[in-house]
Design goal:
This protein is α/β, with parallel strands linked by helices. The protein has nine helices and nine strands. The chain has a single domain (4-240), classed as Spore Coat Polysaccharide Biosynthesis Protein SpsA, Chain A (Alpha-Beta Complex). The chain has helices at 14-25, 45-51, 64-74, 93-101, 121-143, 160-163, 176-182, 208-228, 231-240, and strands at 4-10, 33-38, 55-58, 79-82, 109-111, 114-117, 153-156, 190-192, 198-201. Helix 1 (14-25) links the parallel strand 1 (4-10) and strand 2.
Length: 259
Amino acid sequence: MGTLSVIIPCLDDAAFLSACLEALGRQSRRADEVIVVDNGSSDDSVAVAEAAGVRVIREPRRGIWAATAAGFDAATGDLLARLDTDSVPPADWLERLERRMSADDRPTIVTGPGDFYGGTAPKRWLARHVYLGLYFWGLGIVLGHKPVFGSNYGMRADAWPELRTVVHRDRADLHDDFDLAWCLRPGMSVVYERTLIVGVSARPLETMGTLGRRVGMGFHTLGFEWREWPPLDRLQERRVGRVETAPDPSPEGDSPQPV
């Protein structure tokens, strides 16, 4: 694959970030660069990143998508690997991700599940089998392919210049991984690698309030994407290999959007 960049968006998550960076430091295939995108932290997140010797960039626009996109824009690697601050990858994660991305089918994105830690055993089970299981199963039916799990995926860098013009990177009210999967262009693919697992905090199920906010944002994202690019139109356009676009009324020739 050549070079490999890891992108981690961060907002006030110093303790989790420290554990994530320690895990990256133990990789059998070391990253060529690790980018922490600070989204306006008021805790020690930036100090933790600097102490680990990784690259820090700042994105003032709040939102995981804005921070992630800024990291993708700044990355120099041929493969862009994405983690959250609470992701704890096993020592062979980057090695296995790179190997799968190098396979003959040349997937655009490779993603995998999470092995939840923290909380109680019932909450961890619900997080893995219900919360995340329904996400991969239900959204996979609508998309016609597996969705992307934001805490654990890799993407070919050569796909990003096209995707960055169509994803909704300025929308803090959308799940970034959900939006990325929905906006994939014809010919772009997602491979779900069941054994490519990273540790992920069970904090989404910490309280009914946090779970409700996550689920509510998921349905909000689904409604937004459904209106922007209806699923049947999307499936048809991906099948024929082109995206129908609206006429461009602007003399500047802004990037067309799917209709």
